[in-house]
Amino acid sequence: MDMREVYVDHAAAAPIDTRVAANMQEFLGAAGNPSSFHTKGKVLRDAIDAVRAQVASVIGARPDEVIFTSGGTESDNLAILGTARQYAEKGKHIISVKSEHEAVLEALNQLEKEGFEVTLLDPDAFGAVSADQVIAALRDNTILVSVMLANNEIGTINPIAEIGRALNSNKRENLFPLFHTDACQAIGSMEVNIDALHVDMLTLNAAKIYGPKGIGALYTHRGVKLKSLQYGGSQEKRIRPGTENLLGIIGLGEAIRLAEEEREAYVPRVTALRDKLIAGIQERIPKVRLNGHRENRLPNNVNISFMDIEGEALLLYLDAAGIYASTGSACTSASLDPSHVILSLGVPYEVAHGSIRFSLGRSTTEEDIDYILEQLPPLVEKLRKISPVNVDERHF
Ligand SMILES: Cc1ncc(COP(=O)(O)O)c(C=O)c1O
């Protein structure tokens, strides 16, 4: 097969869809500030409000419950720091999971320094936590629970609706603990409805759904107050002051509209490609381990540990072959430490080290999968030949 370029890192960022770009283009030269009193400003304000309504309608929220942010990190930070600091007198205990994104874990780390107590649950061997685990960890002073909807590295989907229902029967003052979920990776791949999930806060991110990078949103239930992380003007109800990222917001609106509209056609198509890639790797390459749940996973996620090799070395070889994948989260890929997500599954350090994530997308074809399956086995073999490691087969 001829050399080709295969982008399989959509979970880090998907390229901007041309239809999204076209919408953004319309506003590129727009004059005015959305807060300006004149007509030019009003046009922009209306455009922003239309996107707010669009985002709200996709997740079943009210427009005034949607705040625009700079992406997943800020939405997670705002949900966690914003509620913990707002309601500190109601309790200082928070529950989350070891396999969460750094945007959650580092915010919790900060809160520990501020005197909060954090319980991090262990996910099961497939990367999921159960409602029973969450309920068992509840204390009288738990004010917040944060569990992601779908994991960015291994694709495992958590039973958020069950956890939300269980928490609802344990609420104090009808409010605590608040329940936040990070849905950055889930939106566009499954139904994301705040009532069905029973969540109080939900994080969204445009970059994962073919929108621009650096724009996201946080849904917060009307009855929940957030303490702002920044100070300034009256934008976004003063919770997120500063002139709005107009182009980003316009992009997010069209991206989420398309993701929802095309979900029904996209999911079965990409699931078939995912399954072909998993089966193909397992057939052709010995000593591999599929990370995450076999079925209960995102339709575009393939995460495999290749024993006896380093993920980064394989990534470099794949890159030279025109295959663009990742070892996991873009935030940690600069470090050579194995992924905290794979380690949280209870696998040994040596196994976690050789993990690669292939995240497929709208443009992925059968030929792309065939190309990966052709290129990958000899590269793995080559690296194993020079590897000093030989992991015991019982570990996978
Ligand atoms: C689950 C999850 N949460 C949060 C983030 C952070 O998003 P951003 O880098 O856009 O702030 C990401 C992106 O990698 C993610 O996948």
Task: Describe this protein's structure.
With 396 residues, this protein is an alpha/beta fold. It folds into two domains: 6-15 and 263-388, Alpha-Beta Complex (Aspartate Aminotransferase, domain 1); 18-258, 3-Layer(aba) Sandwich (Aspartate Aminotransferase, domain 2), CATH 3.40.640.10. It is 39% helix and 13% strand. The protein has a seven-stranded mixed sheet, with helices on both faces. Strand 3, helix 4 (102-113) and strand 4 form a beta-alpha-beta unit. The longest helix has 39 residues, at 246-284. The relative contact order is 0.16. The structure holds pyridoxal-5'-phosphate (PLP). Pyridoxal-5'-phosphate binds at residues 71-73, 76, 101, 103, 148, 152, 182, 184-185, 205, 207, 329-330.
Which features would summarize this protein structure in a list?
single chain; 396 residues; alpha/beta; Aspartate Aminotransferase, domain 1; Aspartate Aminotransferase, domain 2; 7-stranded mixed sheet; 3-stranded antiparallel sheet; 12 helices; 12 strands; globular; binds pyridoxal-5'-phosphate
